[in-house]
Hints:
The structure is a single chain. This protein is mainly α. The chain has 3 domains: 13-127, 2-Layer Sandwich (Beta-Lactamase), CATH 3.30.450.20; 154-461, no CATH class; 509-829, Methyl-accepting chemotaxis protein (Helix Hairpins, Orthogonal Bundle). The protein has 15 helices and 5 strands. The protein has helices at 28-34, 38-41, 56-67, 114-125, 138-142, 147-211, 218-242, 249-265, 271-295, 304-337, 343-373, 378-403, 412-493, 509-678, 683-829; strands at residues 13-18, 23-26, 72-79, 85-96, 102-110. Strands 2-1-5-4-3 form a 5-stranded antiparallel sheet. Helix 8 (249-265) runs antiparallel to helix 9, helix 9 (271-295) runs antiparallel to helix 10 (304-337) and helix 12 (378-403) packs antiparallel against helix 13. The chain is flat, with a radius of gyration of 58 Å.
Amino acid sequence: xxxxxxxxxxxxxxxxxxxxxxxxSVNDDLVKLTEFDRQELLGxxxxxxxxxxxxxxxxxxxxxxxxxxxxxxxMLKNQTKSGNFFWANTTITPYYDAEGKxxxxxxxxxxxxxTQIKNGEQFYLNPKSQQSGFTLNPKKILYKFRIKTKLxxxxxxxxxxxxxxxINLILTKKAEYEDAxxxxxxxxxxxxxxxxxxxxxxxxxxxxxVLSGDLSAKEGSLKIENELESSYKKFLELNEEEGKHFxxxxxxxxxxxxxxxxxxxNLTLTPKESxxxxxxxIKKMLNVNSEVGESSGLFLxxxxxxxxxxxxxxxxxxxxxxxxGQLRATGLAYLGKGEKAEDSERILIQEIMGATLGHFESIxxxxxxxxxxxxxxxxxxxxYKHAEADFPSLHALIQNRVIKEKIxxxxxxxYYNATTNLIDQIFNVNEIISKQLSEKFxxxxxxxxxxxxxITVVTVTILIFFIVLQYLIIxxxxxVIRNSTNIISQIVRGSGExxxxxxxxxxxxxxxxxxxxxxxxxxxTEIVFILRQVSGELSDKSKEAANLVRNxxxxxxxxxxxxxxTSAATEELAASVENVFLSIxxxxxxxxxxxxxxxxxxxxxxxxxxxxxGMTNLTEEFYKQANDGMLTTKNTADSIHIVNQKAELIDxxxxxxxxxxxxxxxxxxxxxxxxxxxxxxxxxxAVVAQEIGKLAEQTALNTRNIQSxxxxxxxxxxxxxxxxxxxxxxFRELLSNISKIQETAKLVxxxxxxxxxxxxxxxxxxxxxxENSLHILNAASQEKIAVEEISKSIETIATGTQVIAENSxxxxxxxxDIEVTGEHLQTVxxxxxx
Length: 834
């Protein structure tokens, strides 16, 4: 189940794509929110994070807007790697290279309100919703009205359109004026914030010196506090006017409260605590700065001359100044510790230096665009270039006299002055840009206001001109139409002559129409003259036509009789075609049965082939297992043979033990003899000799048992060897039989493949015969239908011929009527005078 993920506040999602829509860079906020690794996104299409439910109309609208080199803004639904989704209030704008050429698009997404998300969801659910209604035929509406009404409608519509256009232009310029004025106030607000941030950063550095024991900075800190109070007074006045409009009223007041609290407790804090408090205060100012930039529409300003200035002023310079402030505070803390400073602090200084260098490089790109689109921005460029030129000196100072040396040789006051000077320059650049932005937006507001006034005057003037022009045009057109209508009506009634002139010397479309109407009257004059000559001849020709019709009627009767005979012959042909059709149908049924039988046979052969394949696989597996069994048996026989050899060694050991036993027994006997000779003194020795004799006898008995057991073992081993050899021979015979089975299976498989191929050709032949029979059957069917159609056509011809014969009599009567009509036509032509 997917869930909605919300974009955190004060988070900006940024993506850059090339002209093909492939992602070329993403910021950390987007990587974190989408759960994708950066490398998973780079080079991929933007659609990788676009939700699949996005309507095609959204993409087409984006493409259309960007192709017109305009920014697009709206709600986009995107997806994360885990399948969740989030809504983003997205602005898409083109971005340019150093030459001002469009090289891709930039997507900037921000937090969307609940209302925006709700509207986006409704649109995504029904993107093709349209208002229902009915349509009317415009011709039928226009035909109901007179020309004067139509002209009044057209001129009225044009006047309305002109009014709407004028009002629209006025409203557009009014909106431009409001936007420019809103952005002007936003620029003034941010200028005030820039001054506060500059003074706060300066105060932070001075307080760091004071709290570290440098009392010479106390006077400067008090002076900065007074300046801050004065700046905060102006800032709070501006906040009372525009704070609620920009949604920063409470946050701005909270910023001032934090400053008041910091001012009261500053001297009681440690340098680190003072630094943290100042950083928190500046962060709040940056939040106010971002919110004002968004609420006032500064971030959405599409004009190239202000777009990059806004980007630098609101998004880059304050953060560069803050980084330099961190560099100043961290470096002073490091210098203050002396030999007690840790390597981690040196590494932190290097990291801040690297981030600062990155900010300078990014801002340099924007400065290049500001120079390109703002020829009057020399003071901005010079001020920034001066700051940029001082940075390498600071970098060298820190690198050579702080980082590389074990004990830094630079003095804290020297380090403080170098960093503070650069921070002041950066804030100075920001204030200059903010002032120029205010001036530009003020000029835009004035221009929009003046343009709206001009449009109002022009619109009223054009409307008056349209009303006068409408009256004159309608009068000129209607007077000519009325005069022409009177002349033509008199000609039709016979009270006027065809020689009347309709050329009024008018050179517009109405004059052209009257000229062609004059030509038309001349043509009518010529036609009337010709009709007078023809009307007399028409009566004579009608009599001749009556005689021709009478002769044609007789011929038609004869043709009707011939048609009846042809119809009878056609019926016989139809019967013959019916018999042929029945015969071919029967043959086609037999061929279908043959085709079914051959198909079943082909299926059976396929099953046999599958069975043979299974048997071949089984015999191969059996052959493999038998071969493994033979090898196992051979290895067992070899092992038993080795055991037999070990048993032979046992016999040798037993022989040695028997020899030792015999010698022991002889020794015991000699000992007993010597004990007997010794008498009483040898009794103990006699007992020992007796025990040694018993041990020798027991050893000999055990040795004989071992020798018997070894003999039995050797016999059993020999029997096992013979059995194993018999088993090995059986396996060899089994392998030979399996090989024969495999050869036989291959022969059967080859024969079966050949038979399958033959069966396939038979099935194809029968199928082709069946298709040909179907073609013949269709042809016969078509021939049958054709014969039936011919028969019907002949019947129709017969009927038609009869009707013609009957109608020829009517035609004869019509020829007589034409004679009467000719006489009447001659009477009518005499009506026109010329």
